[in-house]
Amino acid sequence: MSFEPPLKNKAEQDETSELRPKFNADGLIAAVAQDADTGEILMLAWMNVEALSATLKTGRGTYWSRSRQSLWVKGETSGHVQTVESVQIDCDQDAVVLKVRQSGGACHTGRKSCFYRTIDPETLQLRHE
Question: Do 106 and 82 meet the contact criterion of CB atoms below 8 Å apart?
């Protein structure tokens, strides 16, 4: 699967009904995984063309690992599978939200969500939720 490039006219890009993802200079697009039932944000990852294509084709959360420089399918090694219910793209098509059904934890620490700490704005200390 390949995608047409983004439209040069921003207003046209914002309103087109065509999927024209705008990947950054590294060839990546931000991908937020959100619990399909609760709306809780589970994780933020990155996708390249191949990862976005695989996710749309298979319905499994597939991402690009910047540290390993390779594709990874969520749950492939942990068993914590991410089944994609829907994929939304933002107005200028440079970020996607995956509404998912997550089996097990989404975070590599085993937690349900990668966002388990809150920043105290006065002390800049992290509080665990």
Answer: yes
d(CA 17, CA 40): 27
Q: Where are the domains of the chain?
A: 10-128
97 contacts 104 by C-beta, under 8 angstroms: no
The CATH homologous superfamily for domain 10-128 is Phosphoribosyl-AMP cyclohydrolase (3.10.20.810)
**pLDDT tens string 65-93:** 999 999 999 999 899 999 999 999 999 99
Long-range contacts of 16-23 (CB under 8 A, 24+ apart): 19/89, 19/93, 20/93, 21/49, 21/52, 21/89, 21/93, 21/94, 21/96, 22/92, 22/93, 22/94, 23/48, 23/49, 23/94
Torsion of Cα atoms, 56 then 61 then 83 then 3, to 10°: -10
Q: How much is the pTM?
A: 0.92
Range 79-109 burial, b when 16+ CB lie within 10 A, else e = ebbbbbeebebeeebbbbbbbbebeebbbee
